[in-house]
Amino acid sequence: MILTILAGAPAVAASAQGDPTVERVRAVAARAAIIEDIVGMAAVDQAMRTTMLEATSKLPPDQRDGILKPAGALIEAQDRLHTQRLKAIIAAHGWPKISETSERTSSAAVTLVNHAGFDLAFQRQVLALLEPLAAQDEARPEDYARLYDRLATVDKRPQRYGTRGTTCKDGRYAVPSDLEAPEGLEARRAAMGLQPMAEYLAGLDKMYGACVPPKIAP
Questions:
Q1: Mean pLDDT of 22-26
Q2: What is the pLDDT of residues 142-199, one digit of tens each?
Q3: Which of the pair, 57 or 49, is modelled with greater confidence?
Q4: How many angstroms separate the CA atoms of 15 and 12, rounded?
Q5: CA 47 – CA 57 distance, rounded (Å)
Q6: I need a labelling partner for 127 at 20 to 30 A (CA). Which of 23, 115, 153, 156 fits?
Q7: Are the CB atoms for 35 and 102 separated by under 8 Å?
């Protein structure tokens, strides 16, 4: 029975030639190595950060630096390696579109880009790539939103989607004060597939522990 099925497989594939679903599966298979590389890098990225956060989130803020600094140096070194590899993939194959890889792969690539703050030119390049792709469902809108806000804070511009925890009140994360048109924030977040602001802030508190307000220079 199994041999009969296997023998008929080439004929079935041939008869389905040109079918949109079959062609999409074929496109994904052709990029198997790229998908494995990007998703694998993102898994390492998240494992390192989760390990650090689990060890520090419940510590008093004044005890965190002794762990965060050396652990952060290790993470940045890995980020630089990931950035080099991702840039090579994009140069050779273009951005990993959802239709050609998967939603997980495209989002994983943006995660790696978000952690390439030492290469702002690369981050800006990817943001420009993502804007039309997000509109075409070839990238997740929420990934575009997070990278947009990250660069906005770097450039000292207002955040559009409030995805950066920039404001701290009484040890808890609060609605960012650096917002573009605050009255429309929840609508903009919803349009990009982002969770309501209250849920997002609660997640920051759980993930990072008590926040510390930035020091104001005299």
A1: 89
A2: 999 999 999 999 999 999 999 998 899 998 999 999 999 999 999 999 999 999 999 9
A3: 49
A4: 5
A5: 15
A6: 23
A7: yes
pLDDT, greater one: 177 or 63: 177
Residue type, 41: M
Packed helices 103-114 and 120-135: angle between N→C axes, nearest 10 degrees: 150
Q: How much of the chain is helix, strand and coil, in % rounded to 5?
A: 65, 5, 30
The candidate with the shortest Cα–Cα distance to 41, out of 112, 126, 144, is 112
User: What amino acid is encoded at 93 in this protein?
Assistant: H
Distance, CA of 69 to CA of 167 (rounded, Å): 22
Q: Which tokens hold the place of 102?
A: 């998967």
Residue 79: is it exposed, middle or buried by C-beta count within 10 angstroms (0-12/13-18/19+)? buried
Mean pLDDT of the chain: 90
- Looking at per-residue pLDDT, the higher value among 213 and 47 belongs to 47
The 10 Å CB-count burial string (b at 16+, else e) for 103-126 is: eebbbbbbbbbbbbeebeebbeeb
First to last CA, the chain: 81
What predicted TM-score, i.e. pTM, was given to this entire model? 0.84
Taking alpha carbons only, the member of 106, 159, 111, 108 closest to residue 136 is 106
3-state SS assignment for residue 172: strand
The two tokens of residue 26 are 């074929």
CA-based torsion, 163, 201, 157, 114: positive or negative: negative
Name residue 139's beta-bridge partners: none
